[in-house]
Inverse folding.
């Protein structure tokens, strides 16, 4: 992918991708197996989110799963089985690739909204966690079940981001035990932004993403960047970083468009520049 590519025309092989009204939708689409991930789908997701840095026709992204489930995580037969036969250099290459998916989702400028129903486990839970917002259903079950297969709860950035989202003690319990987090817990703890009916969760996530897509794309990208970068800043450094970020945004045409629309008592039309 490059800066001149039309992302609406992108055709991945291992998940569905569609662009409508500035919103790109990733649909994990192996419903007969609860949408597990494979070596190939990891790589394609990484490449898509890296490429979205250059997108001009995508201002927000929705991630969801087909058939009433989000994702059951890494495919037992297509990933976990082969991993048991690999040497350490191959294993490290794989774990770095999965981490790169998470990093690409956090680094792409578009806000990402996850629409989560049913099973959301393992690497699937990490895709939801890597999103900026998460809409769930009452039947959603989220599990960071790495310890259930003899691994550490530390996977793809879980030990860094999950405590920031739901709190250290809650994250520690989930990552040590591998148990499922109920939808009510996920909402109360801040993992889910809201709960929706199963038949409405994708539409509601898409509606919110569409509202974001019609807003100031440059401003949203700056907000996402600051949310990410300010983790490691002190308060004084964060205030200075935000002063610089806001001054940059004030130099955009969108800022002038908003002022002119306000003065004329009309709704601004943002163009992302």
């Amino acid at each position: 992918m490059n800066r001149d590519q039309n992302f609406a025309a992108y055709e991945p092989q291992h998940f569905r991708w569609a662009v409508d009204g500035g919103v790109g939708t990733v649909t994990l689409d192996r419903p007969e197996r609860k949408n597990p991930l494979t070596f190939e789908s990891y790589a394609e997701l990484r490449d898509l989110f890296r490429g979205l840095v250059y997108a001009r026709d995508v201002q927000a992204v929705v991630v969801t799963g087909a058939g009433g489930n989000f994702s059951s995580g890494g495919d037992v037969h297509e990933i976990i089985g082969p991993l048991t036969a690999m040497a350490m250099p191959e294993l490290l290459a794989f774990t770095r690739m999965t981490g790169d998916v998470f990093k690409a989702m956090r680094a792409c400028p578009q806000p990402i909204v996850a629409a989560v129903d049913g099973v959301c486990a393992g690497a699937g839970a990490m895709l939801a966690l890597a999103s900026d917002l998460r809409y769930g259903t009452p039947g959603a079950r989220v599990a960071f079940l790495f310890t259930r297969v003899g691994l550490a709860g530390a996977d793809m950035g879980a030990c860094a981001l999950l405590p920031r989202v739901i709190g250290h003690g809650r994250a520690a319990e989930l990552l040590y035990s591998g148990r499922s987090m109920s939808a009510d817990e996920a909402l109360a703890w801040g993992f889910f932004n809201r709960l929706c009916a199963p038949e409405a969760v994708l539409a509601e996530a898409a509606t919110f993403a569409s509202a974001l897509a019609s807003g100031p794309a440059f401003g949203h990208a700056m907000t996402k960047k600051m949310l990410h970068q300010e983790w490691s800043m002190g308060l004084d450094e964060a205030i200075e970083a935000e002063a610089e970020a806001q001054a940059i945004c004030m130099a955009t045409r969108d800022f002038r468009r908003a002022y002119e629309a306000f003065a004329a008592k009309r709704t601004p039309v943002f163009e992302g520049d």
In short: The mean pLDDT is 94. The radius of gyration is 19 Å. Strands lie at 16-20, 23-28, 60-65, 112-116, 119-121, 133-136, 141-143, 180-181, 194-195.
